[in-house]
Design goal:
Blueprint: E1 13-16, H1 26-35, E2 40-43, H2 50-67, E3 70-74, H3 77-83, E4 87-90, H4 97-104, E5 109-114, H5 117-125, E6 130-133, H6 150-159, E7 164-166, H7 175-181, E8 186-188, H8 190-193, H9 198-225
Parallel strand pairs: 1-2, 1-8, 2-3, 3-4, 4-5, 5-6, 6-7
Helix pairs in contact: 1-2, 1-9, 2-3, 7-9
Length: 227
């Protein structure tokens, strides 16, 4: 199976895990999300011990290897290195990107959560391979952050050359807005990981993203032909 490109040029749907429901497992969740078309999986669970996280990361990386999906671990640079996963994602309160780059070298992906243009440019300058922009909309996943709104997506589109992922409260009802504003890739948590049918939810979201990108391109083409 061909692996995704590390430059994120072929990434559309980025799925972030959440704590499995009773009767569900991370393995089942990730397997279903990959089957539904997820291009990137990020494991985010702050409750697991380092040993538990290591074992789970190894299992999920193996699933992603079989499906050609990139696998990213949230926060834990030490575990990411030990488990030899595709990359790590850090936030504004975690280790600085430049330090993470020194630790992980240049063969692994490093992502960084950003909430302003200044943070985005700083992360890019420090060596991030991709950044996230959000939260776009209100979300219980990030209750301490106010929504940044679609205007920030437009700023990132104009000012940031490194790939960015729109995130925060995105679901089937508003994903087209994020794409229309300028996002090429979208990260989803609850709308997929928390869905009754994870595979179906991922497939639906992927289709919506691709359709919205086609619609945006059609608008751009129309403007160019009718100045």
């Amino acid at each position: 199976m061909r692996k995704r490109l590390n430059d994120f040029s072929d990434v559309h749907l980025y799925v972030v895990t959440q704590t499995p429901r009773p009767g569900q497992s991370y393995v089942a969740m990730v397997t279903a999300a990959c089957a539904g078309g997820a291009d990137v999986i990020q494991l985010r669970d702050k409750s697991l011990s380092a040993r538990e996280l290591f074992r789970l990361a190894k299992d999920l990386q193996a699933i992603c290897d079989r499906t050609g999906t990139l696998f990213i671990l949230n926060d834990r640079v030490d575990v990411a290195l030990a488990a030899d996963v595709d990359g790590v994602h850090v936030g504004q309160e975690d280790l600085p990107v430049r330090v993470v780059r020194e630790m992980m070298g240049h063969k692994k992906l490093i992502g960084c959560s950003t909430h302003s243009t200044a943070q985005a440019l700083a992360a890019v300058g420090d060596g991030a391979d991709y950044i996230s922009c959000g939260p776009l909309f209100a979300t219980p996943t990030k209750p301490d952050y106010s929504p940044v709104g679609l205007a920030l997506v437009k700023e990132y589109r104009q000012l940031v050359r490194t790939p960015f992922v729109a995130i925060g409260g995105i679901d089937a009802t508003n994903v087209a807005q994020a794409i229309a504003a300028g996002a090429d890739r979208v990260a989803v948590v609850r709308a997929i990981a928390g869905a009754p049918d994870v595979e179906k939810a991922a497939r639906t979201m992927k289709d919506l993203i691709l359709k919205a990108k086609e619609d945006r391109q059609a608008v751009v083409g129309s403007r160019r032909s009718n100045p």
